[in-house]
From TrEMBL:
Cofactor(s) of this protein: heme b
GO terms of molecular function: metal ion binding; peroxidase activity
Similarity annotation: Belongs to the chloroperoxidase family.
PANTHER family the record matches: HEME HALOPEROXIDASE FAMILY PROFILE DOMAIN-CONTAINING PROTEIN, STERIGMATOCYSTIN BIOSYNTHESIS PEROXIDASE STCC-RELATED
Keywords assigned by UniProt, alphabetized: Heme, Iron, Metal-binding, Oxidoreductase, Peroxidase
Pfam families, per the entry: Peroxidase_2 (PF01328)
Identification of the protein by name: Heme haloperoxidase family profile domain-containing protein
InterPro entries documented for this protein: Chloroperoxidase, Chloroperoxidase-like_sf
The species this protein was found in: Aspergillus calidoustus
Length: 299
């Protein structure tokens, strides 16, 4: 005989737990936005950080002085689809093995290495909480899960359907991205939007498991990566070749964004929306471009 009382009690407990989680997320989002708006307004009137001193004294990278780069041992170290985190681990700013990283640890390091506001750093790392299973920490390899940090039509990785291990960049894809700088020196927002449209079109064409077709959220996340490339690197091709392709910091490099309190969510969203709504997956291709499959790119 069914135990209706215990069944009903179990349903009630789950509803309460789910409701508490929703309320907690809503409170987090509201306070994060409120703090970010304050940081954004202060940035409007505060003096920018001086060139050569964007990263504060005492933090890795101050004055362009980065800790030693050591290429990861992929038999013992763990890496992710995120160049920003991989670079930090390769320089020992995050643990070099890429394991047992807490959200506070990740947010703190990306905030200071890339001159992000605390709010944007928190927002970028919060996405990983859906895969930590309540542990409070992750290994970088955990981020290989589809549509958490990793997403189809990436600038630096082939889709997970073709490349299950997303821990290393594909040099051909990186070079192809950088070749789309219209002036030959730096990627503009228009260049990034065009190349995003190209990558999405070819992923949709070649990948029967293409996951972005009905997911604005993950398209938006991909455009957000382009916005960060533009803000933090100024789209500089020379620096991005090292940072994206080798996953290390160029010698003497510091963030191009010099806001007093760091690049904020509001600033990031403005550029992200500009990129996303400029993307056309059916656009006329530039001279010399064609839709390529992973096999074609490696011919």
């Amino acid at each position: 005989m069914a135990d209706y009382y215990n069944t009903g009690l179990g349903i009630f407990k789950r509803l309460i737990k789910a409701s508490a989680k929703v309320v907690s997320l809503a409170v987090f989002a509201v306070q994060l936005r409120a703090r970010d708006l304050i940081w954004t307004l202060i940035n409007l009137v505060a003096r920018n950080r001086p060139a050569g001193g964007v990263i504060p004294p005492g933090y890795p990278g101050h004055g362009g002085d980065w800790p030693k780069y050591i290429a990861p041992n992929l038999e013992s170290d763990t890496r992710s689809p995120c160049p920003g985190l991989n670079n930090l681990a390769n320089h020992g700013i995050l643990p070099r093995n890429g394991k047992h990283l807490t959200y506070r640890q990740m947010a703190h390091t990306i905030q200071h290495a890339y001159n992000l506001s605390p709010t944007l750093a928190e927002r970028l790392t919060a996405a990983a909480k859906q895969i930590d299973q309540g542990r409070g920490w992750i290994d970088l390899h955990d981020l290989n899960a589809l549509n958490v940090i990793q997403h189809d039509a990436s600038f630096t990785r082939h889709d997970i359907a073709f490349c299950p291990d997303q821990s290393s960049p594909d040099r051909d894809l990186v070079e192809r991205l950088l070749a789309h700088a219209s002036n030959g020196h730096s990627l503009s927002l228009a260049d990034i939007a065009y190349y995003s449209g190209l990558r999405r079109a070819e992923s949709k064409h070649s990948n029967g498991e293409y996951s972005l077709a009905h997911s604005f959220r993950h398209k938006y996340f991909g455009s957000g990566n382009g916005a960060l490339i533009s803000a933090v690197f100024g789209g500089d091709v020379k620096d991005l070749r090292v940072w994206l392709g080798e996953e290390r910091f160029p010698a003497g490099w510091e963030p191009k964004n010099r806001e007093a309190l760091g690049y904020t969510i509001v600033q990031s969203q403005a550029s992200t929306l500009l990129i996303e709504f400029s993307i056309d997956e059916e656009q006329q291709l530039r001279r010399g471009d064609e839709l390529s499959s992973p096999a074609k790119l490696h011919e």
